[in-house]
Design a protein that fits this description.
By secondary structure, this protein is α+β, with helices and mostly antiparallel strands. The protein has one domain (about 1-80): Alpha-Beta Plaits (2-Layer Sandwich), CATH 3.30.70.100. It has three helices and three strands, in the order E-H-H-E-E-H. The protein has helices at about 15-20, 25-35, 60-80; strands at about 1-10, 40-45, 50-60. The longest helix is centred in the last third of the chain and has 21 residues, at about 60-80. It is globular. About 10% of the residues are buried.
């Protein structure tokens, strides 16, 4: 299993939106949920610094992760082209 950890600083007024977008079932999760080998996402908020968040993306293998990222970039490019 591959775990990718991201760190974010989130303003107080944006915390709810952040948690909805990056949490389980959010936009980020949905983007990768269709990708083979994606196992899910976890969002953690620092108890001492509430503006600090970590997200952990879980993948079966590094190859699955790279393939998922590539397909997500392609999909984003397609959306930009349609506009």
């Amino acid at each position: 299993m591959v775990e990718i950890v991201w760190e974010f600083g989130v303003r107080e007024e944006a915390r709810g939106q952040f948690e909805l977008a990056y949490g389980p079932g959010g936009a980020w999760d949905r983007l990768f949920a269709r990708r083979s080998g994606f196992l899910g996402i976890t969002v953690l908020r620092d108890a001492k610094n509430p503006w600090r968040y970590l997200t952990i993306d879980l993948w079966e293998t590094e190859a699955h992760r790279e393939q998922g990222r590539s397909k997500a970039r392609e999909a984003q490019g397609d959306r930009r082209t349609i506009r």
